[in-house]
Design a protein that fits this description.
This protein is α/β, with parallel strands linked by helices and 304 residues long. It has a domain at 43-243: Spore Coat Polysaccharide Biosynthesis Protein SpsA, Chain A (Alpha-Beta Complex). The chain has 13 helices and 13 strands. The longest helix is centred in the N-terminal third of the chain and has 35 residues, at 2-36. The N and C termini lie far apart (62 Å).
Length: 304
């Protein structure tokens, strides 16, 4: 019995040491990366096309960031926009510089405005342009959605999730991630009016800078921004916490559990297109069809 107790105590102590060491390494890594972030270029934008489509209808505004090499708006994006338009006004911001007015007609009935701009600043640059376009009109809204076209879906009722989460949080994301350092994943985030007016949100977008490397973009706009929000007086949360899984990127590692067990509304485009972790995703189509009537053929078209 003593031997067993001794083993368990030491196993527990060892685990504590290992956890502490992991946290320490992560903190050092983040500090070093933070100190190495380039200053960033001053934000500037070149608007190529602006189309006003509809009038203000809802008390929520969505800034949707889009990009495509061929200047087209794919079917999966149109589907996503159509579902969003059931409960939010939409400003569609595209960095597809070769997009035409005819292409915009595909989504104009769902949008407040469609803006095509020079391809700088990635998603946060697009959202910054959307906020600049809104200007004081943002005061007409109770909530702001920042999202992008990096996911397929929604497969389930997005509005129900939106309403449920807004009851408890000033800021929330669909998922979070511990890679690099803990952060809210930016592909779908919601901010209340309180959060929009908060000095942290205002400072982040008023002082927005353009970074050229993906690491700098994630570190500045996701990791540091997320932690600033968490350390404020705002209530911050996630719809699905990675703590429920392995703290790795849940949208990749646990894509199937998210869809089947959690009835998650999205699957990441990167997972199906690139599968960077070489996971078994051979049954992705069957899984989606088991939880939804979503037409998976529009995903396959986009992946070609």
């Amino acid at each position: 019995m003593k031997s067993s107790s001794f083993y368990l105590k030491n196993k527990y102590r060892l685990q504590k040491i290992l956890n502490f060491t992991k946290r320490l390494i992560l903190s050092i890594k983040t500090f070093l990366m933070k100190s190495n972030i380039k200053t960033g270029a001053k934000f500037s934008e070149k608007i190529l096309l602006l189309k006003k489509c509809n009038v203000h209808s809802y008390n929520t505004i969505c800034l949707f960031s889009h990009f495509s090499k061929n200047g087209q708006i794919d079917e999966y994006v149109i589907y996503y926009i159509e579902k969003l338009a059931k409960f939010t006004d939409i400003i569609f911001v595209s960095t597809a510089e070769n997009m035409t007015s005819k292409e915009i007609d595909k989504i104009s009935k769902f949008c407040l405005n469609v803006l095509v701009k020079e391809n700088t600043g990635y998603d946060f640059g697009a959202w910054k342009s959307g906020l600049t376009l809104l200007n004081k009109q943002i005061n007409n809204y109770e909530h702001l959605i920042l999202c992008n076209d990096s996911v397929y879906g929604p497969f389930t009722q997005l509005e129900a999730i939106f309403n449920r989460m807004n009851k408890n949080y000033d800021v929330w994301s669909m998922t979070d991630n511990y890679e690099i350092k803990y952060h809210l994943q930016s592909y779908f985030m919601v901010y209340s009016k309180k959060a929009i007016k908060h000095k942290i949100f205002q400072r982040h977008f008023n002082d927005f800078k353009i970074y050229n490397t993906k690491l700098d973009i994630i570190l500045k706009n996701e990791v540091i921004f997320s932690n600033s929000l968490y350390n404020s007086n705002l209530n911050v949360g996630t719809y699905i916490s990675s703590n429920e899984f392995s703290k790795n990127n849940p949208c990749h590692i646990h894509w199937k559990e998210l869809l089947i067990q959690k009835k998650f509304p999205f699957i990441k485009k990167e997972l199906l297109r690139d599968n960077p972790r070489a996971l078994n995703i051979s049954d992705w189509e069957e899984v989606i069809e088991s939880i939804s009537n979503y037409d998976t053929s529009i995903i396959k078209k986009n992946l070609k």
